[in-house]
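Subject: sequence -> structure tokens, single chain

Hey, anyone have a minute? Need the predicted structure for the following. Not urgent.
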Amino acid sequence: MKAKNDISKNHVLWSTLSWIIGLALIFIIWTILSVTVYKENGVLPNVGKCFVAFGTILANGTNWEAILIAWAQALACLLLAFILSAVFAILSRYFKLVQYLMMPIVTLARALPTAVLMVLIAVFLVPIPALAPIFVAFFVIFPMLYEGINNAIDNIDSKRIEMATVFNVSKWEQFKNIYLPAATPYLFSSLIAGFGLSFKIAIASQLVQTVITNINPNYPSIGMIIASLLKQNDYAQVIGWGMIAIILSLVMELVIKEIGRICMPFKYKDRNHIINFVKKFKRKPQHA
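Reply:
Had a minute. Here:
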């Protein structure tokens, strides 16, 4: 027990040191570039000016509304993509027709360039601009989550399924006691990666939407704000918005990880769980 605690403490220590060293290197390279390569054009402002811009953004109430809207769009996209990908991944395991139908859809969604997708959806959804970022992020996130869930199912130990089948365990009990516990870690990993990506795509699609359609989306949009800042050559504010996006993604990642710990009780990590599960059904009388 003491050895495990020591290993855990060392892991936290080295993780913290890695973060500190990594950030220090980023700031050093940033400072060098800002005073050498980008000194004349001012495209890369110094670190201090960007942090001042970061504070200015947070002090503006309208900016908070824009942040919450982008966050809500990313979350709505993630939940929609996760639910549909989980449903179709499960259906494709039971119905070959669904699996064959999903193959070209997922391949096309994954292969279509994101920039083309942003332009097309921004043009088609001009009357409802708030939905454009959600749809763009959905078509990018859905194939990733669908394949992630399928990979999670593929990685389940086939011997467990065979053992449960031998003892006539129902499909629902197999799903609840074997598939779900084994796939849960992969699902939460996909959710963590999916939110960060959907949040970035939501902001990028807002920007493209503003530039392509040249209309006011009638709600505070981070993309519209960034487009305005680029016209003013205010790169410190643009980088400040990037810092806000990074922090929000990290916070949401921590939230999803904490939810994952709650949803993955210790018994799912127990290697003897499947044995106890099968024994329980073995004791039940079998019906003819």
